[in-house]
Design goal:
Length: 258
């Protein structure tokens, strides 16, 4: 039995953490199941991924505290490495990713959302890094990604104090891109995913690669990454069709996946 459900509708694949009885808490099997689903993604037919949580309360209430409670430092290091590996894979996945955060996104849940490219949330979402209340640090990238998203001062405030943040504040600080009534969240994520999926797929992937690479580089090197991705687009059919379409006053070009 898998703790991750996958459903493909056209070019959009939704991966749902499916462990609602534990508020979708992330244990080793959930991480392995997530990883296995990523292995299975058909890069020819899928153009955008959505991550969400089963049930009405939680996206994910964090790493599984019961599973972590008796870990040795070595086991904790292995668990942290595993989580970081999977989340880094999501962050660098060739396709765009959207987290549809439908409730609690605490600890590892917040970290999973932050590993995605874009975050949308429900009005009842709650974000936070409560690890210091448990005697640990964030272990799946929280100390690194939160400050990159909301700035060093705000990230330190939230991580040191373990204060949780409601949807409106998350929106205001740029942690999420949009807030929706619970029943409108998935449709909004699907609509955004469909809009992304209509665009030239190689170009969209190239944008993600250039942005992910450039964010940690000095500007001159970052621009080199853009030049590389931009020029590579000129080897694609999409570039030829897209530009010819514009010049011929043809709109709504359908781009084939490659
Ligand atoms: N782990 C395991 N089980 C959890 C869980 C979690 N994080 N969160 C909730 N559950 C389980 C509860 O134990 C309960 O199970 P039963 O008692 O029914 O068997 C069930 O889900 C429903 O939860 P509640 O009864 O507590 O539900 P409430 O609505 O009353 O409260 C809550 C919801 C989200 C406020 C509360 O459950 C809560 O505070 N949960 C813990 C949130 C939290 O502290 N999350 C951060 C976890 S720490 C590292 C690797 C990773 C990490 C750090 C280091 N290394 C290895 C270095 C990451 C750490 C974290 O994510």
């Amino acid at each position: 039995m898998s703790f991750v459900r996958s459903q493909q509708e056209g070019p959009v694949l939704t991966l749902t953490l499916d462990r609602p009885e534990a508020l979708n808490a992330l244990n080793a099997q959930v991480l392995d199941d997530l990883s296995a689903e990523l292995d299975r993604v058909d890069l020819h037919s899928v153009r955008c991924l959505i991550f969400t949580g089963a049930g009405e309360k939680a996206f994910a209430a964090g790493a599984d505290i019961a599973a972590m409670a008796d870990m040795s430092p070595e086991e904790a290091a292995a668990f942290s490495r595993r989580g970081n590996q999977v989340f880094r894979r999501i962050e660098t996945f060739p396709l765009p990713t959207i987290a549809a955060v439908n409730g609690y996104a605490l600890g590892g849940g917040c970290e999973l959302a932050m590993a995605c490219d874009i975050r949308l949330c429900s009005e009842n979402a709650l974000f936070g890094q409560p690890e210091v209340t448990l005697g640990i640090t964030p272990g799946f990238g929280g100390t690194q990604r939160l400050m990159r998203l909301v700035g060093m001062g705000k990230a330190k405030e939230l991580i040191f104090s373990a204060r949780n943040v409601k949807a409106a504040e998350a929106l205001q600080m740029g942690l999420v891109n949009g807030v929706y009534p619970a029943d409108e969240l998935l449709p909004a994520a699907e609509k955004l995913a469909a809009k992304i999926a209509k665009n030239a797929p190689v170009a969209v992937r190239a944008c993600k690669a250039a942005m992910n690479e450039g964010v940690n580089l000095p500007m001159d090197q970052a621009i080199d990454a853009e030049v590389r991705e931009f020029s590579a687009c000129f080897e694609t059919e999409d570039q030829k069709r897209g530009m010819a379409g514009f010049l011929n006053k043809q709109r709504n070009i359908r781009f084939e996946n490659k």
